[in-house]
Design brief:
The protein is an alpha/beta fold. The protein has ten helices and ten strands. Helix 4 crosses helix 5. It binds adenosine-5'-triphosphate (ATP) and magnesium ion. Magnesium ion (MG) binds next to helix 1.
């Protein structure tokens, strides 16, 4: 039997109160894979991410971690799942505690003894391209790009196998975006990290993802290899989405000047 995906949503119906906003979603991310979740505002992308992170329980279907439904994981399984699947959110006020210093925010996810923390934090900050001296700063003393790197370092502290990234670069200006994408690409290459990446930017999908899943109003309308979905969208909705992205607008994906910066 092939290895179970790290995370798998299977026929997942996702709801807020009595309103179901995602219908029968099938979505799997295998070890080392990188899957894009695309769709216009309100289509249910963040909702799907919340379900993958165990923050929202499906009202129908299942979310499985390495083949076991989340609500059937035992205590050890839950611990493993919580460490292995880590969120990276858009840089925003809700992401980092404004009062907490960078070092302790990053240290929270670390499984190492207290005495080794400062060193481990410095290592993680260096891994994401930050000066370890920034550990003493508070979030408002950093740029948006630096804060997003802190968010990534914090996720890495738990030694995850899968990052669930919800618009990780959309709050950043384009040159900073490009550098964060470089970082994510490097983490993929060096650590074999799997990614579930939510973005409105199809150029990001082209660069970082193997597969793409397109949601419209809570339903999958297209899926397949990212390159195929971007180059020859089968669904009119995806074609519209593609046309609406200035970076791609007719040009070949991946040649967008913003990403070459
Ligand atoms: N906490 C919530 N309570 C109630 N309804 C919600 C909640 N969060 C999202 N929704 C609704 O669920 C639907 C899907 O929202 P979701 O946030 O998943 O969309 P999205 O694809 O992430 O959009 P965006 O691109 O704007 O981030 C929308 O109709 C939204 O209004
Ligand atoms: Mg969202």
């Amino acid at each position: 039997m092939p290895e179970a995906p790290i995370i798998e949503l299977s026929g997942a119906d996702l709801a807020y109160g009595r309103r179901t906003v995602v219908h029968g979603l099938d979505l799997a991310v295998a070890e080392g894979a990188s899957v894009a979740l695309i769709g216009e505002s309100g289509s249910g992308k963040s909702t799907a991410a919340r379900a993958a992170l165990g923050l929202l329980r499906p009202v129908g279907g299942e979310v499985r971690y390495r083949g076991t439904a989340l609500d059937r994981l035992d205590a050890a399984g839950r611990r493993a799942y919580r460490a292995a699947v880590q969120p990276v959110f858009q840089d925003g006020p809700e992401t980092l505690d404004p009062r907490q210093r960078v070092g302790s925010a990053v240290a929270e996810g670390l499984g190492v003894p207290r005495a080794q923390r400062a060193r481990a934090v410095a290592g993680l900050l260096a891994d994401v391209g930050l000066d370890p001296a920034l550990a003493d700063r508070r979030p408002h003393e950093l740029s948006g790009g630096q804060r997003q790197r802190v968010g990534i370092a914090r996720a890495l502290a738990a030694e995850p196998r899968l990052l669930v990234l919800d618009e990780p670069t959309s709050a950043l200006d384009v040159t900073v975006q490009a550098r964060i994408l470089d970082l994510l690409e490097r983490l993929r290459a060096e650590r074999g990290l799997a990614m579930l990446l939510i973005t409105h930017n199809l150029a990001v999908v082209d660069r970082l993802c193997d597969d793409a899943v397109v949601l419209e109003a809570g339903r999958v309308v297209e899926r397949g290899p990212a390159r195929r979905v971007l180059d020859a969208p089968a669904h009119p909705y995806t074609a519209r989405l593609r046309a609406a992205v200035p970076e791609l607008g007719g040009a070949l994906p991946g040649t967008a000047p913003a990403l070459g910066a």
